């Protein structure tokens, strides 16, 4: 049975490690730093043979070169149309990437960056389908729009929103409490958000990650997946009125939520 673990990097990054205890093989997702991965592999007696890359930002690919030097037979699977040229297997949206007995569907999720992809598998990992979404979808948040548009990000999140409700969302940062502060400021009467915030605060106080989340919970809690939720629409329209922004479409509502978070 495969195991999955979060390897902490920088101040708030998570590098994900899938491991097969029977073979000792490991798959790493978005290694922004090499040393935490090297230490983890050595401690657990694992051999790296595959790296998945979601996008080109240095905090996601900065450790790739050193890891490939350590494990020269390893594959690096990343987006074909990308500023990052360190991949050895280039994939396009709609392609499949196979590791051990796990088949990942490659999804296009531009917005944070234009090359951003996500890897989804319906093979159960820790009992659930798994989504490795980099910086597109966070717990109660989404990535900043460094290269893409709000419309692109909304469509990317729409495609993720359509995945099975049981999907575990393995994002790449511990941004949850900051995201929840924003969400609660827009939806102060949302009792589910309030309860979830308390739960996440307790986990962080105990030194535990808040990631992964479950997609069904994100659809109920995350304002960036709720552009058509009446409560979020009402809050967005009030914000748009105050800021002089349009609020005449779902895309405008989503853009307002992103604008609100950027200026929170």
Describe the model:
This protein is an alpha/beta fold and 264 residues long. It is built from nine helices and 14 strands. The chain has a six-stranded mixed β-sheet with strand order 1-2-3-4-5-6, with helices on one face. Strand 2 and strand 3 (25-29) form a beta hairpin. The mean pLDDT is 97.
Strand order of the largest sheet: 1-2-3-4-5-6
**H/E series:** EEEHEHHEEEEEEEEHEHHEHHH
Q: From the structure provided, what is the oligomeric state, counting identical versus distinct chains?
A: single chain
Structural category: alpha/beta
Distance between the termini: 43 Å
Q: Calculate Rg over CA atoms.
A: 18 Å
Q: Mean pLDDT across all residues, rounded?
A: 97
Largest sheet: 6 strands, mixed
Overall helicity:
25-40%
Top keywords for this entry?
alpha/beta; 264 residues; six-stranded mixed beta sheet; single chain; 9 helices
SSE arrangement:
Blueprint: E1 3-9, E2 13-20, E3 25-29, H1 35-44, E4 47-52, H2 58-61, H3 64-70, E5 75-79, E6 89-91, E7 96-99, E8 102-108, E9 117-125, E10 128-134, E11 137-138, E12 141-142, H4 150-161, E13 168-171, H5 176-186, H6 191-205, E14 213-214, H7 215-221, H8 230-243, H9 250-262
Parallel strand pairs: 3-4, 4-5, 5-6, 10-13
Antiparallel strand pairs: 1-2, 2-3, 7-8, 8-9, 9-10, 11-12, 13-14
């Amino acid at each position: 049975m495969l195991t999955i673990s979060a390897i902490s990097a920088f101040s708030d990054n998570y590098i994900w490690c899938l491991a097969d205890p029977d073979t000792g093989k490991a798959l790493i997702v978005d290694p922004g730093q090499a040393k935490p991965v090297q230490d983890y592999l050595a401690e657990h007696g694992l051999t790296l043979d595959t790296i998945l890359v979601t996008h080109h930002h240095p905090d996601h690919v900065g450790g790739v070169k050193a890891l490939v030097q350590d494990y020269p037979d390893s594959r690096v699977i990343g987006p074909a149309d990308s500023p990052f040229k360190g991949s050895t297997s280039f994939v396009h949206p709609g392609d499949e990437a196979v590791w051990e007995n796990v088949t990942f569907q490659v999804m296009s999720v531009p917005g944070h960056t234009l090359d951003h992809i996500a890897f989804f598998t319906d093979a159960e990992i820790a009992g659930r389908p798994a989504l490795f979404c980099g910086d597109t979808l966070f717990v109660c948040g989404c990535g900043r729009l460094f290269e893409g548009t709000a419309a692109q990000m909304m469509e990317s999140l729409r495609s993720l929103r359509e995945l099975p409700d049981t999907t575990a969302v393995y994002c790449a940062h511990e941004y949850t409490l900051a995201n929840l502060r924003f969400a609660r400021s827009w939806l102060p009467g949302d009792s589910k958000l309030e309860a979830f915030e308390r739960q996440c605060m307790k986990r962080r106080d105990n030194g535990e990650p808040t990631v992964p989340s479950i997609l069904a919970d994100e659809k109920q809690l995350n304002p960036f997946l709720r552009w058509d939720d009446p409560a979020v629409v009402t809050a967005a329209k009030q914000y748009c009125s105050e800021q002089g922004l349009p609020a005449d479409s779902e895309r405008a509502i989503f853009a307002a939520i992103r604008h609100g978070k950027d200026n929170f």
